[in-house]
Structure prediction request, 433 residues.
Amino acid sequence: MKLFKNITRLVISVSLATVMTAAAWADEWTHVLPEEVGMSSARLQKLTDVMQGYIDSGDVAGMVILIARDGKVPYEMAFGKRDLATNAPMLKDTIFRIASQTKAIVSAGIMSLQEEGKLLVTEPLGKYLPEWMETNVAVAKQDGEGYDIVPAERSITIRDLLTHTSGIPYGAWINGLTDDAWMEAGFPGWYYASSDKPIRELVREMAALPMVGQPGEKWVYGLNLDILGALIEVVSGQTLDVFLKERFFDPLGMVDTQFYLPVSKLNRLATVYVRTGPGEITRASDEGIMWTQGDYVIGQGPNLTLSGGAGLLSTAHDYSVFLEMLRNDGATMSGEQLLSPMSISLLTTDHTGDIDFRPGVGFSYGFAVALDRGIIGTPGNVGEFRWGGAYHSTYWVDPVANLVVTAFTQFGATAGLDDQNKLRAMIYAAITD
Prediction:
């Protein structure tokens, strides 16, 4: 009985410590008047009016926007509905599928392992996942009919995966050349939350398939971060969810970030919609490889595949806290150093060099990086790093302006929607210093 009481006290102490960590962060994440951080309340009200306009017109069901500057929050707003059918309001703590915004967190995990001397990003992936030491590449035939398969000229490195220059496609999605091979092998796209295999097994099967570029040859958006998630599991000896929870989620108080949603949080999950025309949206189907809704809930699917490329759910607050850590050179607001300033620099510096990515933009270890605003043509500063998710979520960090922006919604198709461009323009217009 005494042992039981001691164990009980220990469990309670650990639980309280976790809660206190989250609470401490929340207390320090101060909400302030915009003017206290060099922003205009009047201009941010115009932003609110414009974003509300998308709700009123029926173009967007709901969204959550959080703006942080100088480590404080001058603007956090929830708009519209979390679910139109039930009339459930969008709230600031609504949970979203963040899809490719998972990539930044897993990239940070790789840098954490490098800091501990457990791997080097310049090493071959095959050193840790042997089936990847030698791979094959598809080369289109000159007559345009099919392709030949040739050996890769060198081994794929961890760095190739971080920069999406490995030549690995996103299965049979935005691939074209080798669609049939990847589809036949059971890799139709980027959505694997419904798979009944763990990520390590899926990654083992991927290695035998033809890639669509030589390592280091070109930028190819693909399954790179899913593979890095499996690498983290092998090198750390932990499952990816436990690793990320210990390294980032617990220290940062990210209590609503996870791969699969507990049933107790299901009522906070936003519904996915598709836009069928101006002012017309409809609930996305539960069928298919991309927008399945139920598989994200514990007990409603296999819940086996921890996708480092697209699997996490989170809130705007949680994700902003992670981004603020990056902006703060790897330190939490309480001063705990989760990553070194050098690792943050590597994560957010262009590594593509002469490899074409986008005009005026490079790619780092997980982010697009602004290199030339004169070419890009939109507001912001050189050195800004950003990305987004397949459900029309977006974020950016502008170290020059000391700015973190997170904007979450849940759309599977958004043709013609210009909310994100207006969001950017109006946020920078609100900065007064």
Q: What stands out?
A: DSSP finds twelve helices and 15 strands in the chain. The chain has two domains: 27-101+242-429, 106-238.
